Amino acid sequence: MRFDTYEPGDFYDELFIAKEQPRSEATLLIERINSLPPKELQRRQQVAQKALFKLGATFNVYGDNRGTERIFPFDVIPRIVSAEEWEVLEKGLKQRIYALNCFIADIYDAQKIIKDGVIPAELIASAKGFLQPCIGLKPPGGIWCHITGTDLVREKDGQWYVLEDNLRCPSGISYVLENRRVMKSSFPKLFETMAIRPVDDYPSHLLDTLLNLAPTNLTDPTVVVLTPGIYNSAYFEHSFLAQQMGVELVEGRDLVVADGYLQMRTTKGLQRVDAIYRRIDDDFIDPQVFRSDSMLGVPGLTEVYRNRRVAIANALGTGVADDKVIYAYVPQMIRYYLGEDAILQNVPTYLCWEEKQLNYVLANLDKLVVKCANESGGYGMLVGPHATPEKRQEFAQLIQANPRNYIAQPTLCLSRVPTILDDSFEGCHVDLRPYILYGKDIYVHPGGLTRVALKKGSLVVNSSQGGGSKDTWVLAS
């Protein structure tokens, strides 16, 4: 396979400026692929996919009766981000996470942003992720959002936009690390000649972030990863990160509140737990405070947390910032808390709870993407131009029944990356999820998960909807 016949099309292509004109940062990659013998690239693609399968890089799809585990499709053509571009993204992400942390701390305390009329009180009160039991909580160091996965997209003009924020239990970093592992085997010479920033130190940065939460008087704090269990869609990642950090992977049944502390059951008796990386949603984490029918959490955990005898990442209540209606106000948050303009812009967003914007959305469903405020994974979404009239009518009724629960955005012309489909290269649409850790400082991991829509022409990149992933190469300056 060669790129001689590849057509970038009328899109922003991450590797090509025009036909047979690679971007400067991609030149070595394109030359290397073009120099491979016939069928060699397909062979490397197959080897890479088999390697990921052997590594166990799978995910679960809820409600899929064909089997609980699927391999996450992977494409060996990477996305490349220049050092100059990454510097801007890094600054913008740090700014955004700092402002989001200020916002969460504020709404669970003085609520100044509401009193000053920046965000309507009813939007916060009606947000599914705003949790009354979290009012007055004081997490260690005032940090609420320790681990964030922020989804970015690039438009036709090359401009980056923030598509959404993921603060509850953002997933996908394990695929970033495993993808890089197989890519180093697929193109070892390129990693020797190109200045590609490494990604394999993420677990050590994550562990440092979690240890930073523990009381300073502890010489050897105990950190655990709390998982809902093997049937969770991201269980591979939970076990992978625990193993990489050298900490215990536990379920709710492994933990108990005793003597005012959170304790872990071990073969030697109870052992105190000082910090939790939780991969369980708030609703299920403590049946005494949230959902009483939860079998996944730990009864009494919230009280121990409130008494600052255990730290939790991310803090309880951070899911309020995942609300796609709240997302629309992040630029205002940045101006309010930091006195700055946003470095990274939001995608233009219509709020259906406002009557004028609602009327516009209903009149233009064939042109817009409609999203449910609290869904993820590509669920609860309408891609208007690709939907049937019946589906658009169905969504119109849903929006009218609950306007607060929906936003709409223009259909984006997402950037593309050459991707192997059958025996040829096709330009497939991508997004990018960088991972940001907030400990002593805010750290943006170089790269992130590039998700790719593997169905020709599709804009939906989610794994549960048929998407796959690519390695993301951030070049050093």
Automatic annotation (TrEMBL):
Pfam families: CP_ATPgrasp_2 (PF14403). Gene3D superfamilies: 3.30.1490.270, 3.40.50.11290. It comes from the Bacteria. Signal peptide: none annotated. Residues 78-453 form the Circularly permuted ATP-grasp type domain. This is Circularly permuted type 2 ATP-grasp protein. It comes from Aerosakkonema funiforme FACHB-1375. The lineage of its organism: Bacteria, Bacillati, Cyanobacteriota, Cyanophyceae, Oscillatoriophycideae.
